[in-house]
Specification:
4 helices; 5-stranded antiparallel β-sheet; single chain; alpha+beta; elongated
Amino acid sequence: MADGDHLWTSSDAGAAEDVGASADASGDDGRDTSSGSFLRELPVLLLVAFVLAFLLRTFVLQVFFIPSASMEPTLTVDDRMVVEKITYRFREPERGEIVVFEGETESVPRDEGTATSLVRGVGQFLGVVPASARDFVKRVIGLPGDEIRIDGGEVFVNGVALDEPYKVEEDTDYGPVIVPDDRLFFLGDNRPNSSDSRRSLGFVERDNVVGRAVIILFPVDHFGMLTGVEYVDVPDAQVPAPDAQEVPDADEVGESVNSLGRSRAAG
């Protein structure tokens, strides 16, 4: 009789139950094997993820947490910004760009083990942990050979006043100074509350530049591009950049506060 006409008997049903039970047992074993295989592979997957995150953070981009008000109103406390690390491999920083760089000293020394350092690094990559105490974010003002002068809070580069709609005003005098070879001069947008090239950081070595800030990622209401500002009227440096050993560092020049600035501070 053809299979389609086969009549099921009790013996057939018993045989089917045996086959089904065998298949179920085999399926359970397969699932157990699959689960065990995943658990064995999990450490490798985590290691690969950490390595990829490390490479991405080191060579491509990094999310930075803003801990201070030195760049307000452009960047505010608790903002998360993305810094890309590709552009400056092919060209030099330009005036007006917002840049992250490493300072010479670390304000808060750390004594931590490898595991703590790894966790902190992942947190910094995700932007949920503040960056190293040596990392600063400022705006590029002076390039090698540029003459920097501040008169009544107005910044002059190579004799031309900068148009700076983003800054918090401060009525101070500074300079003039010439930016040495292989160095950059930085200012924070919040001039009265910024430790920058004028006050403590001095001229910053080009090799200490980490990358270029490109976007505010979080919070959502601050989301936007950080395209920098182009100072179109500023001429190139008129003299060759001196050697760094030939000029005093920028933070050694000093800064004087005008009487108007004093009255504002007192009021």
